[in-house]
């Protein structure tokens, strides 16, 4: 008797609909991944330290702070939509974040500050 490789003995045919249904049963849905930088342990520690140092500030203390932000708007970027399978509340799970690409063509930088 010829022996089949072990994987050949357990072949199961599944439809896309069956797979989607099973994923849905365990609350996994196709969603857009969050975009942002991967945070290394040092970045996480710095964020935690910031909250510990300034988390109890009140409005008069924060009124002396200038908040700034800058955004880059790409002019020549393709849509590049992707999906990941995740549960609700897992948007910023580091394993599910799509990293932003640098230098993808022409862009415009916008900076703002408010107090």
Descriptive key words:
alpha+beta, DNA binding, 115 residues, two-stranded antiparallel ribbon, single chain
Could you give a quick summary of the protein structure above?
The chain has four helices and four strands. It is 28% helix and 19% strand.
The overall pLDDT average reads 81
Cα radius of gyration in angstroms: 23 Å
Main sheet, how many strands, which sense, barrel? 2 strands, antiparallel
Q: What's the overall geometry?
A: elongated
Run of helices and strands: HHEHHEEE
Q: Report the β-strand fraction as a percent range.
A: 15-25%
Number of domains: 1
Number of strands: 4
Count of separate DSSP helical elements: 4
Lateral arrangement of strands in the main beta sheet: 1-3
User: What share of residues is helical?
Assistant: 25-40%
Report the uncertain regions: none
Oligomer: single chain
């Amino acid at each position: 008797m010829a022996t089949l490789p072990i994987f050949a003995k357990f072949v199961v045919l599944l439809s896309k609909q069956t797979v989607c249904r099973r994923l849905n049963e365990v609350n996994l849905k196709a969603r857009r991944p969050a975009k942002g930088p991967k945070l290394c342990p040092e970045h996480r520690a710095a964020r935690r330290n910031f909250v510990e140092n300034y988390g109890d500030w009140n409005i008069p203390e924060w009124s002396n702070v200038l908040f700034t932000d800058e955004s880059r708007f790409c002019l020549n970027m393709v849509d590049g939509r992707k999906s990941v399978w995740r549960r609700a509340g897992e948007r910023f799970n580091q394993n599910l974040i799509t990293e932003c690409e640098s230098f993808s063509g022409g862009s415009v930088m916008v900076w703002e500050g408010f107090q």
